[in-house]
Q: What sequence folds into this?
């Protein structure tokens, strides 16, 4: 990563959507295809399920340790849901970004607002919309993990969350999964090229400046070298 | 363009670079491959050359007409070069953007600064760098249209222009033309998805809101329809 042309600061790619827009599918596809991005691992106080692995799916913490981290400013965002705490640990994200790795976040509108207050410059925020409520409901029914009451609860939350669309940098409408996936990748690839993520390019600029100064001081062009 | 999902406001893609970075090649490739973008046509007071077509290569104007346009605020940016005036007409750009078409600008650092003062929200600015001065000089020599004195003059201008790199949204380093071209396309595709370029999505948000309200008022999920 010492090469100024390729060295960069990682970015936080935030993908948010109401339930049933297809976010999980897009997230899974992106992580499969793109190498330099990993899903953010949250801390939580809820009990570990049998199929979950500590440090992979979550960092499982005691409530005391969670509150300690939160109060010490070690969480970029946090929330309490059904009596359990969830949060994003600051240090792991900072280490990834400094190493030029991107971090993907699958968080809700409230979480995005907390993050934006802390680290807006590192973020690229994407809001994913379903093309219609009919399509959204049919996606939620296909999942089969929720009964009708649970789906209605999700739709109620969605009703509030879609109002936040104007706060996001980019909007995707998932009327065609392949197209939405191409669009998400274009956003990731473009955001990596942002000037503010490439401070090491200063070294290239300095080198170009020195070499131009050398030619201009002599007042004659160099003979064609091996690179000509 | 009535479909709120696809309707969008066009963007101004600004590609700026010191001479010899490969900008002309990238510009030509982009215009060949991308349909919804066209090169901005400038107005000028310099005499038309034999191989140039009025309204295609430039809008050729009298100095009186140019000054009239400039003083009436009809130019987004302008400059005087070797006694001739050059400028970007505001109305043609505004009509393209309103119709959802993108406009590509091949302008210098001073032009970008003038544009940014007028229409920053519509712009995405890209600065293209050569990987080395040796490569830059060899590109300028290959062109064969300039003698050594003209190339030295270009390098002197380049020396000043590279300092402006930090003012641009995106930086490309042209050490591999195919990669730089892919990167430029990713920037164009991502910028088209920016929330602020898609005001018509308000209609989709309103429709989703109405349909969700309908379901929530009934308190039961609709039966699976044809789209399920």
A:
């Amino acid at each position: 990563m010492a090469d100024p042309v390729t060295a960069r600061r990682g970015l936080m790619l935030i993908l948010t959507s109401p339930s049933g827009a297809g976010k999980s599918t897009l997230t899974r596809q992106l992580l499969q295809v793109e190498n330099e991005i990993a899903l953010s691992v949250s801390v939580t106080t809820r009990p570990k399920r049998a199929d979950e692995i500590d440090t992979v799916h979550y960092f499982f913490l005691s409530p005391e340790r969670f509150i300690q981290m939160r109060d010490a400013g070690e969480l970029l965002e946090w929330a309490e849901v059904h009596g359990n705490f969830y949060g994003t640990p600051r240090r792991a994200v900072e280490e990834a970004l400094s190493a030029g790795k991107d971090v993907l976040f699958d968080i809700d509108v409230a979480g995005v607002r907390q993050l934006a207050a802390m680290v807006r410059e590192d973020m690229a925020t994407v809001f994913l919309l379903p093309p219609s409520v009919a399509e959204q409901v049919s996606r939620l029914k296909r999942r089969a993990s929720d009964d009708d009451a649970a789906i209605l609860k999700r739709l109620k939350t969605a009703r509030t969350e879609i109002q936040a669309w104007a706060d996001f940098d980019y909007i995707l409408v998932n009327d065609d999964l392949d197209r939405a996936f191409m669009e998400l990748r274009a956003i990731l690839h473009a955001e990596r090229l942002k000037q503010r993520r490439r401070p090491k390019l200063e070294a290239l600029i300095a080198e170009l400046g020195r070499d131009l100064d050398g030619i201009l001081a002599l007042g004659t062009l160099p003979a064609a070298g091996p690179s000509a």
Notes: The helical segments of chain B are 23-33, 63-71, 90-98, 109-119, 133-143, 148-161, 177-191, 201-218. The domain at 12-208 of chain B is CATH 3.40.50.300 (Rossmann fold).
